[in-house]
């Protein structure tokens, strides 16, 4: 690595900035193919039931309708039409049973989307309703069983023991044991136990989910707003019994993703419809339909700590129940991969973790910006605060006393390396001026402050590959399957290529993912791209550069000083030729022991995020006004500080929504607020007037130029920092999200011993 | 489905154009006929601002406007903001401030900022927040958008005095 970089650390605007401000960005949303049919989905109206009949005759008879397809029609093409990254549990269209309100049951196809939409209203399905279960705790013992038999996919060898399991809603149980928690609890001076809950929310990318498929001769091209093109190719090929090379997946820029557009969403459906009709088919969801497609796990987290008089935590037990909804999606991975950090970034010698992925009759849950971590931090950082207050300790002091320091073993036994937990905590405290007095308000306006810190391990093991092509004029083309959904990966990856090739990043063209051309990448998720794809891109660039150097040596030209165009001219006699570099990156990893979850190397890197909040509570209305928010992260050395800054703001603001306002309301399984009219995401007035971000001075070894992922880190600690500040202001502890004015007001009235009587 | 179609003509970014529309088509669908992609239907309820356009100089949600009703009107979209291939100072300010991530909401914010600055050339932060409160950005680029609007106001002022 060169000591002085010119392209790394440069806050250059995004490569596609001009297209974005002129409205010219091409999203899959805009795609039109010649002869294309539009699909509109008919959805289940019951939460759990056996399909008795689906009458599509009236819909089929409507003028302009091309066809109506049900699950039965798909069987002719795909005998086992079930998909999923962890469990093969989700049918392309419902078969025999429906498992949640909003599940796709049939599709109407027409050249005019309005015709298809009208025809959907003419479909009549009858169900024999079955008992349904919606709550994750009830699902543990409920007689309502969502899936008759568990069907883990072959992708993950560690799920093999679940094959064929019956009469259970537990998709996965995860256990971690470190030290002897039971013994330590018996020895502790104090034992604290609390239960915290989080609600179901939705990503609501402003470009709603959309996919199209175009049949060819023994070929299929899928155009999709997806974060995981390589997975889509693999899974569609598996469903069809085809070669991967017969399926081409093309992805444009995404109008937001946040984890919603992962794995298979509409891709299997459009693929099957295109093959059945031999016509291109596009399905674009409405904002409402997104709420029926993928969501964030509601959770219940019971946390128990054994603490000594001096505030030292010596034992912790975590029981976490993840409400996965009707289909597992990536939920079981959330349960495991986030599960092992349930104890928090603290040095606790004795810890037991039990984490359960549960099926219920809700819309499915999957990954959402943080992969389960914000739900965990919500509980353990609220709990930590309560313990401090009960012991009469400062809430910063208890964290300082217990923080997990460099080199100390994490709950999995993996020693912490390059995780600036302590520094992040200290920077939050310093920026909050924690040791100084502040205005506590008076009368009905009471002010308080709170802080929290959380951490995450990047998912492992995963693979990224990349290809760099050098043209004869020295400009470069980067082919990779990382999807730019707004996080700026095209730009930062171009900066890596440019740095190695010693050219301005503006001379690097980044291809949109196209699985015929761009090589394999696991997926754009979990803040993994900067590190994994960044390494692959760096390796590919170095490979290309080394080939240029070898070319110079062959031609007896000085390798370091010969301009690249000159090199090509000398080699090929004119401006001609191509040099290609390839890079592949899989970090080292040690899988955890099956019985106790212990591992020497559980993750390639850790992400740290801390938040400090100052707020005012109106005790007459329950309204909370966040006046100041500080987000501090360890993201290693940022490649493009301006883009990182936006990632931090964006993550924290999204989590403000999940903390203060957003909640999917369900009535007998029916989402009753699936629209922006009733489900309010943060707007301009919801942003704290003082809003600051900081990246601590850090360097991640083994990472490209010391940079690691950052897309999620500022979500981690927002919710508990707010709850802790509310407690500080008015002595009230909230244990459920979201913290709406109504919930604050109701809790206040209970605290005052005059609960609000419901009408 | 009603089959009623009608021919309309209107001003689109300064040019007189005509189109055949069905009664139930909205303006976003109409603009698609002209290959314009800047106004996008997202929430479908006029609540997110992604489909913002100007009709007779008033910002409206394109998804709530029936195409047939722009007959004879003056429609301006993000595509009309560039002059001779030069970005408008507002667009330039959005780039310089990094005021977007995925970019899906950006045309709406840019047009709304234009309307704001036309009416209040020197807005304070509260005015900016209030004026842009009908536009949603799920990526949460609000702090950068605030900076971009301030910068755009500066750029307009210096362009006016230049």
Written overview of the protein:
- The complex is a heterodimer of chains A (about 750) and B (about 160).
- Chain A has 19 helices and 30 strands.
- Chain A is an alpha+beta fold and about 750 residues long.
- Chain A folds into 3 domains: about 30-130 and about 210-285, Alpha-Beta Complex (Aldehyde Oxidoreductase, domain 3), CATH 3.90.1170.50; about 295-405 and about 410-460 and about 595-750, Aldehyde oxidase/xanthine dehydrogenase, molybdopterin binding domain (Aldehyde Oxidoreductase, domain 4), CATH 3.30.365; about 460-585, Aldehyde oxidase/xanthine dehydrogenase, molybdopterin binding domain (Aldehyde Oxidoreductase, domain 4), CATH 3.30.365.
- Chain B is an alpha+beta fold and about 160 residues long.
- The mean pLDDT of chain B is about 95.
- Chain B contains 5 helices and 5 strands.
- In chain B, helix 2 crosses helix 5 (about 140-160).
- Chain B is globular, with a radius of gyration of 16 Å.
- Chain B has helices at about 25-35, 90-95, 105-120, 125-130, 140-160; strands spanning about 5-10, 15-20, 50-55, 60, 75.
- Helices cover about 35% and strands about 15% of the residues of chain B.
- In chain B, strand 3 (about 50-55) and strand 4 (about 60) form a beta hairpin.
- Classes of the chains: A alpha+beta (about 750), B alpha+beta (about 160).
- Chains A and B meet through helix 1, helix 4 and helix 17 of A and helix 2, helix 3, helix 4 and helix 5 of B.
Brief overview, please?
The complex is a heterodimer of chains A (759) and B (162). Chain A has 759 residues and is an alpha+beta fold.
According to DSSP, the number of beta strands of chain B is 5
Q: In angstroms, what is the radius of gyration of chain A? A: 27 Å
Q: What are the low-pLDDT stretches of chain A, counting only 5+ consecutive residues below 50?
A: none
Number of strands of chain A: 30
Based on Cα principal axes, name the global outline of chain B: globular
Task: Give the number of helices of chain A.
Answer: 19
Poorly predicted ranges of chain B (pLDDT <50, ≥5 residues)? none
With helices defined by DSSP (H or I, 4 residues minimum), what is the helix count of chain B?
Answer: 5
Task: Kindly report the spatial arrangement of strands forming the biggest sheet of chain A.
Answer: 3-7-1-14-11-12-13
The biggest sheet of chain B amounts to: 5 strands, mixed
Largest interface: A-B, 63 and 53 residues
CATH topology of the largest domain in chain A: Aldehyde Oxidoreductase, domain 4
Mean pLDDT across all residues of chain B, rounded?
A: 96
| Cross-sheet strand order for the largest sheet of chain B | 2-1-5-3-4
Beta-strand percent range of chain B: 15-25%
Cα-to-Cα separation, first versus last residue of chain B:
56 Å
Q: What is the CATH class of the largest domain in chain A?
A: Alpha Beta
Helicity of chain B, as a percent range: 25-40%
């Amino acid at each position: 690595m060169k000591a002085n970089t010119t392209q790394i650390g440069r806050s250059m605007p995004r490569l596609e900035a001009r297209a974005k401000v002129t409205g010219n960005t091409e999203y899959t949303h805009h795609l039109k193919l010649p002869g294309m049919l539009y699909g509109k989905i008919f959805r289940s109206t019951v939460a759990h039931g056996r399909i008795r009949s689906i009458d599509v005759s009236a819909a089929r008879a409507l003028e302009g309708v091309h066809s109506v397809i049900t699950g039965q029609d798909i069987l002719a093409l795909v005998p086992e039409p079930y998909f999923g990254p962890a469990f093969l549990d989700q049918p392309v269209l419902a078969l025999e049973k429906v498992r949640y309100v909003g599940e796709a049951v049939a599709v109407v196809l027409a050249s005019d989307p309005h015709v298809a939409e009208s025809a959907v209203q003419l479909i009549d399905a009858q169900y024999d309703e079955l008992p349904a279960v919606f709550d994750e705790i009830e699902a543990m013992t409920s007689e309502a069983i969502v899936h008759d038999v568990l069907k883990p996919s072959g992708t993950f060898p560690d799920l093999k023991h679940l094959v064929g399991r019956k009469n259970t809603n537990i998709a996965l149980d995860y256990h971690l044991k470190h030290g002897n928690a039971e013994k330590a609890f018996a020895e502790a001076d104090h034992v604290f136990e609390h239960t915290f809950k989080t609600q179901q929310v939705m990503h609501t990318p402003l470009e709603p989910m959309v996919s199209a498929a175009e049949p060819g001769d023994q070929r299929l091209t899928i155009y999709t707003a997806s974060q995981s093109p390589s997975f889509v190719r693999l899974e569609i090929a598996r469903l069809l019994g085809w070669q991967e090379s017969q399926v081409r997946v093309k992805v444009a820029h995404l109008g937001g993703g946040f984890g919603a557009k992962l794995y298979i969403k509409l891709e299997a459906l459009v693929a099957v419809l295109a093959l059945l009709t031999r016509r291109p088919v596009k399905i674009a969801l409405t904002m409402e339909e997104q709420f029926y497609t993928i969501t964030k796990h509601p959770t219940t987290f019971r946390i128990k700590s054994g603490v000594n008089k001096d505030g030292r935590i010596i034992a912790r037990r975590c029981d976490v129940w993840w409400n996965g909804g009707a289909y597992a999606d990536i939920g079981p991975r959330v349960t495991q991969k986030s599960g092992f950090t349930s104890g928090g970034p603290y040095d606790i010698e004795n810890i037991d973790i039990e984490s359960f992925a549960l099926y219920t009759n809700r819309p499915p849950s999957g990954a959402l910006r943080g992969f389960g971590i914000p739900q965990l931090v919500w509980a353990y950082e609220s709990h930590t605060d309560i313990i401090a207050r009960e012991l009469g300790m400062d809430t910063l002091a208890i964290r300082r006393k217990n923080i997990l320091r460099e080199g100390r073993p994490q709950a999995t036994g993996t020693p912490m390396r390059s995780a600036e937990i302590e520094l992040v905590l200290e920077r939050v405290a310093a920026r909050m001026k924690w040791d100084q007095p502040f205005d506590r308000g008076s009368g009905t306006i009471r002010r308080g402050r709170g802080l929290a810190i959380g951490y995450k391990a990047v998912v492992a093991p995963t693979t990224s590959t990349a290809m760099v092509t050098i043209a004869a004029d020295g400009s470069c083309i980067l082919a990779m399957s990382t999807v730019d959904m707004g996080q700026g990966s095209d730009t930062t990856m171009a900066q890596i290529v440019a740095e190695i090739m010693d050219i301005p990043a503006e001379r690097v063209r980044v291809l949109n993912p196209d699985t015929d051309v761009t090589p394999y990448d696991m997926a754009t998720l979990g803040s993994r791209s900067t590190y994994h794809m960044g390494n692959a891109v760096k390796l590919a660039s170095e490979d290309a550069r080394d080939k240029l150097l070898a070319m110079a040596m062959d031609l007896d030209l000085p390798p370091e000083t010969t301009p690249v165009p000159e090199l090509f001219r000398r080699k090929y006699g004119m401006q001609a030729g191509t040099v290609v570099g390839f890079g592949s990156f899989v970090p080292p990893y040690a899988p955890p022991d099956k019985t106790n979850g212990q591992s020497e190397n559980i993750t390639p890197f850790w992400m740290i995020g801390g938040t400090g909040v100052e707020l005012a509570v109106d005790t007459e209305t329950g309204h909370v006004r966040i006046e100041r928010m500080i987000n501090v992260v360890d993201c290693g050395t940022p490649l493009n500080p301006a883009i990182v800054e936006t990632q931090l703001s964006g993550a924290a603001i999204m989590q403000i929504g999940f903390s203060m306002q957003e909640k999917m309301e369900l009535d007998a399984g029916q989402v009753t607020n699936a629209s922006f009219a009733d489900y309010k995401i943060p707007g301009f007035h919801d942003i704290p007037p003082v809003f600051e971000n900081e990246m601590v001075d850090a360097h991640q070894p083994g990472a490209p130029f010391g940079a690691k992922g950052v897309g999620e880190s500022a979500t981690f600690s927002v919710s508990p920092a707010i709850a802790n500040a509310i407690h500080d202001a008015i002595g009230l502890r909230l244990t459920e999200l979201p913290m709406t004015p109504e919930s604050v007001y109701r809790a206040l009235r209970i605290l005052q011993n005059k609960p609000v009587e419901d009408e | 489905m009603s089959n009623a179609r009608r021919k309309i003509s209107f001003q689109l970014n300064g040019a007189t154009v005509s189109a055949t529309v069905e009664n139930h088509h909205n303006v976003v669908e109409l603009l698609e006929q002209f290959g314009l992609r800047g106004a996008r239907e997202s929430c479908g309820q006029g609540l997110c601002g992604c489909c913002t356009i100007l009709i007779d100089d008033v910002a409206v949600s394109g998804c709530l406007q029936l195409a047939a009703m722009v007959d004879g009107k003056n429609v301006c979209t993000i595509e009309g903001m560039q002059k001779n291939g030069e970005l408008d100072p507002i667009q330039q300010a959005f780039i310089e401030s990094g005021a977007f991530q995925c970019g899906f909401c950006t045309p709406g914010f840019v047009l709304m900022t234009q309307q704001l600055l036309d009416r209040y050339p020197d807005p304070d932060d509260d005015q900016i927040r209030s004026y842009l409160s009908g536009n949603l950005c799920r990526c949460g680029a609000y702090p950068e958008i605030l900076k971009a609007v301030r910068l755009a106001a500066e750029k307009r002022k210096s362009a006016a005095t230049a």
